[in-house]
């Protein structure tokens, strides 16, 4: 996006392809700008004690949440992974278990995420692109909310559910929902992944 003109009743955006090329103008009523998030590690004095960070400021840790400096650990938004409170909580529990000499574990495929737009967008597990990269044979099932009687009855049927499942076993690998209340619906999918449910079993529910 090259520029935004908000002087009139309609927002005008000047767009240019990321790979370069001819610019175009898009008119819209509303523009949602998603700038992303970055770890807030500046000013913590990490450089003074020698803690390594990556190019965007994330603290580098191993699988036990330990930094390169003995006795210094990091979790949550300052390390690699989803910047979500419930992910940070699980990191913290696992980190303390490691410090206590026990075995901790966080399965990031079980961490749901929600974008609070309308309709909401929620997901858990792997995306279709990630499954492709892993070389796993898979199937995709999609269900439009226009086919859901309740959604039609309340006149809020804009949305879709997408399930990615392993082709041979039908085990669910990822669930992605764009629909009203997707943030609540995704928790059923979390349970399905946690207990290794098949896509057929999930659709029955």
Written description of the protein model:
- There is one protein chain.
- The protein is built from 6 helices and 8 strands, in the order βββααββαβαββαα.
- The radius of gyration is 21 Å and the shape is globular.
- The mean pLDDT is 88.
- 24% of the residues lie in helices and 21% in strands.
- The protein has 205 residues and is of the alpha+beta class.
- It has helices at residues 46-49, 85-99, 128-134, 149-153, 182-194, 199-204; strands at 3-5, 11-15, 24-28, 113-115, 120-125, 138-144, 160-166, 172-179.
- The chain folds into 3 domains: 1-33, no CATH class; 46-106, FAD/NAD(P)-binding domain, CATH 3.50.50.60; 111-204, FAD/NAD-linked reductase, C-terminal dimerisation domain (Enolase-like, domain 1).
- The strands form 2 sheets. It has a 5-stranded antiparallel beta sheet with strand order 4-5-8-7-6, with helices on both faces.
